[in-house]
Amino acid sequence: MNQTAKYQNRIELLQGTLDMLVLQALLREPMHGYAIAQVIRDRSGEVLSVETGSLYPALHRLERQKWVKAEWKLTDSKQRAKFYQLTALGKRQLTTDHQRWLQMVRAIGAVMEPEVQP
Questions:
Q1: 63 and 71 Cβ atoms separated by less than 8 Å
Q2: Residue 10 contacts residue 49 (beta carbons within 8 Å)
Q3: d(CA 23, CA 90)
Q4: Residues near 73 by beta carbon (within 8 Å), at least 6 away in sequence
Q5: Residue 59: which residues within 8 A CB-CB, separation 6 or more?
Q6: pLDDT at 9
Q7: How many angstroms separate the CA atoms of 17 and 108, rounded?
Q8: Which residue ranges of the chain lie beneath pLDDT 70?
Q9: Residue 110 — φ and ψ, nearest 5°?
Q10: What count of other Cβ atoms lies within 10 Å of the Cβ of residue 36?
C-alpha cells in the first residue's frame, strides 16, 4: 500500500477509543510508548496509527486516572524509557470500555444492515 493510500485510510481515534486501545495493548505486559504505538499499528493491520501528539497525552491522562502506572527502565537497546503498566483499576476500566464498545458495534451494525422486506 502506498503512502497516499495509507494516509487516506488513517482513522482518527476518539479519546475514549484511544484510551481503550492503549489499555488493551498493556494487558499482557508493561511497555514504553513507542512499543504501545507499534502494537496498535501491528494488531490493526497498519490501519490505526497513533501519533506521538495523541499517545503521550493519553498515557499521562491514564496515569492521572490511576489506570496505568509508570516507571523509568532501560529498553532492550539500553535506552532509558518510561514503561507503562496496567493497574487493577485499569483492567476494570478496560472491561467496562470493551463492553461499551461491543454494544456500540452491535448498535451501529443494526443500523447499517439493510431492512428485511416482508
A1: no
A2: yes
A3: 7
A4: 32, 80, 81, 83
A5: 22, 33, 36, 68, 70, 84
A6: 46
A7: 15
A8: 1-15, 116-118
A9: -65, -40
A10: 24
For position 16, what pLDDT does the model report? 77
The count of C-alpha atoms lying within 13 angstroms of the C-alpha of 66, restricted to the half-sphere facing its C-beta, is 3
Separation between Cα atoms, residue 20 and residue 16, nearest integer Å: 6
Q: Determine the pLDDT at residue 111.
A: 93
What contacts 24+ positions apart, CB below 8 Å, involve 92-97?
A: 93/23, 93/65, 93/67, 94/20, 94/23, 94/24, 94/27, 97/16, 97/19, 97/20, 97/23
Residue with cell 532501560: 74
The domain locations on the chain are 3-112
Is domain 3-112 in CATH 1.10.10.10, yes or no? yes
DSSP state of 27: S
Instruction: Give the sheet arrangement for strand 80-86, strand by strand.
Output: 31-32, 80-86, 68-74
